């Protein structure tokens, strides 16, 4: 397997030149120069109304962005991909487009993950008298109550003959854990069939997943899938996949009623897609493919995963060693280092010598040169439901890395943590 050339990679990101250590990548990644170049090029040279007779070039450029998002999703067709300003907004649009296909008594299964793929279904349930059920993560460690995981055995009993939709996350932006999507969706569909569910769909949040691993909506057999481009080295927008059958049979258009939408993604995309940002996104796949000689997304993501294990290891080892455990450090999620964990690590410091998460982040800010964050990161209910209860005003500390972070950077982060926890 190819090994990433980190120097070459870092040279693709202008903001990394300062040497500042960006360790809040789950909040937003750096933007690749190639993305910036395309946005500037679009605005400088081709900015005009899409579909205007005089704008054939810019319409074509926007299609380039759609092609790249389709490739990232592994969608069957470009007609299954739309854009919006954020994943939160796209999930809201999807739920509104689905509204007429929801009957009173239908059931939605949601999680305690980021509210983007929960709130829209809760609001839709309230509007349509549907029922919401929760797939809750469970503690898996006798020593650490915050070490929780989502397990299929708690998910499947939630499925009934009325289950209409499961809204799940490929990866947690807090726990750092990846669920086996293919296996989970297969088991869900099987159970829904056994229960006699008339129509069952899956909405997948890939926001915390997409910069780390290859998405594959076909293999996963999901109906809806969303990721934020600004967390995958692009600018601030998001992309949604909607299976063409769902576009045809589940969705009612939410755009101006006089527009002919023809079961195209425009059906759930009121307003334009954010043209220059969509064109900017078209640089992401070429960037990712350039990481390995194979010129292939799967190979690049394999190499990314290898490197990310390498940078995760010193951080997770430090935070989970016996000394830190005795000190009161408790990570969220599991301490195992394997490919089902991305390098996003959250922790709290509890006990007699507890330290507030804000004070830990404050110590990093005071020192300067490294950005980390604390809070609940919109996974409010995940953190609020942990026991013993955590202070929601303080939240958890999150350190989140991606493939452009280096082992040396992680060593510097660990050095600061060592000082703060001394
Ligand atoms: C897992 C997850 N889902 C959804 C979102 C929302 O994404 P956006 O900011 O594009 O609305 C985030 C943002 O942090 C996230 O981490």
From TrEMBL:
Native species: Suillus luteus UH-Slu-Lm8-n1
Record SUPFAM superfamilies: PLP-dependent transferases (SSF53383)
Source superkingdom: Eukaryota
Protein name listed in UniProt: Aminotransferase class V domain-containing protein
InterPro entries: Aminotrans_V_dom (IPR000192), PyrdxlP-dep_Trfase (IPR015424), PyrdxlP-dep_Trfase_major (IPR015421), PyrdxlP-dep_Trfase_small (IPR015422)
Every Aminotransferase class V domain range: 21-412
Lineage: Eukaryota, Fungi, Dikarya, Basidiomycota, Agaricomycotina
Signal peptide region: none
Coiled-coil spans in chain: none
Pfam family, one: Aminotran_5
Gene3D superfamilies reported in the protein's UniProt record: Aspartate Aminotransferase, domain 1, Type I PLP-dependent aspartate aminotransferase-like (Major domain)
